[in-house]
């Protein structure tokens, strides 16, 4: 049984066969992969958060105690 999985390119929505021969999967091309990377780098895309923690909550003035 050889099922073929087809996904849509996240950038241009073109159909892409999901297998090891598809070098840019899930993207259809290097171009679409770079467009997506640029969107993440420009913070146009982000992973949603619960909003109850800020960036400053992750930092502390106290040194890290390894004991």
Automatic annotation (TrEMBL):
Gene Ontology molecular function terms on file: DNA topoisomerase type II (double strand cut, ATP-hydrolyzing) inhibitor activity; zinc ion binding
SUPFAM superfamilies referenced in this protein's UniProt entry, alphabetically: Glucocorticoid receptor-like (DNA-binding domain)
UniProt-annotated binding residues for Zn(2+): 9, 12, 28, 32
Cofactor: Zn(2+)
Top-level division of the source organism's lineage: Bacteria
Protein keywords: Metal-binding, Zinc
Region Disordered, annotated ranges: 44-67
GO annotation, biological process: regulation of DNA-templated transcription
Cofactor: how bound: Binds 1 zinc ion.
Free-text function comment from the UniProt entry: Inhibits all the catalytic activities of DNA gyrase by preventing its interaction with DNA. Acts by binding directly to the C-terminal domain of GyrB, which probably disrupts DNA binding by the gyrase.
NCBIfam families linked: PRK00418.1
Quaternary structure (record): Interacts with GyrB.
Family designation: Belongs to the DNA gyrase inhibitor YacG family.
Protein name: DNA gyrase inhibitor YacG
Source organism of this protein record: Erwinia persicina
Gene label: yacG
């Amino acid at each position: 049984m050889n099922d073929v999985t087809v996904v849509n390119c996240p950038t241009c929505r073109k159909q892409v066969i999901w297998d090891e021969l598809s070098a840019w999967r899930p993207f259809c091309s290097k171009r679409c992969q770079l467009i997506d990377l640029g969107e993440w780098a420009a913070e146009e895309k982000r992973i949603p958060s619960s909003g109850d923690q800020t960036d400053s909550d992750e930092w502390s003035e106290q040194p890290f105690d390894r004991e």
